[in-house]
Amino acid sequence: MAVLMNRGRSCPLCGAVSSDEVFRREKDRRWWRLLCCAQCGLHYTDPQPTASDIARFYSGDYHAGLRSPGASEKAFGEKYERYAAWIASFLPAGRCLDVGCATGLFPYMLRRRGYEAEGLELNPESAAWGSAHYGVPVAQGTLADAAAWGRRYDLISMTDVLEHAFDPLDELRLARRMLNPGGFLLVTFPDILSLESRYYRLLSALARRDLWRTCSIPYHVWEFSRPTAEACFQRAGFSVAAFRRSQLRETLAGKWKLFSIPPMFLWLPPAAARWGTQMEFMLRCAGEED
After folding, report:
1. Where are the domains of the chain?
2. What is the pLDDT of residues 71-108, one digit of tens each?
């Protein structure tokens, strides 16, 4: 029988004790709730996953489907090309660290553009495979491990990573200390309040099935909207240099795929740019200007 533990913790961003339950999901014979803070609006997982939970989530076969030639390129190549081009418009050259790099495709692509890029990955199998396959430095560990190296970077990227961190606010503060003056932080993750996300939440409620594919608790420790993301960035000492949206081409599986049709209009570029679920932020340390 699944159990629900540690009910009703305070908001990890603002400390408010009042929150509303939005959703719940069973994983590993435990119930996990998505709570929404009544004061700041942050969505977060309750109970909070522990460091050992997170290590277990991303160990073993996690990324196994990406650890073969061409698999990462098929899954992420187009997206990473867009990210690399966006980085180049702010930073034409420099030292880069890609946090949570999986098999290392993104630092490999940055190296091909002339950047001194390296990767950091929690999953040891993926880190080892990426180093061997792409020939780029991919270290196994956390951002705290990387901070102990004493290196400074011109850009740190966290693409679909920060929301998985044990404490996203602490991760941002740590990344700020690792950046050179004038450095950039690229952060991307989905918007829990996007049109697509609202649709799948409603569909899940109507069907009485777990179809909310844009909600990823307990893998996501926090689920962000644009306002809560920007509040978090500000508290960590960053300002938003640029913001844009995009849309991933993903659908429901099996017999439910037909119900993915309404969000598919977001695949059109004008709709994706305005309403897309994927949020992309280019950050700089607060007070620093070009």
Report:
1. 1-48+199-290
2. 999 999 999 999 999 999 999 999 999 999 999 999 99
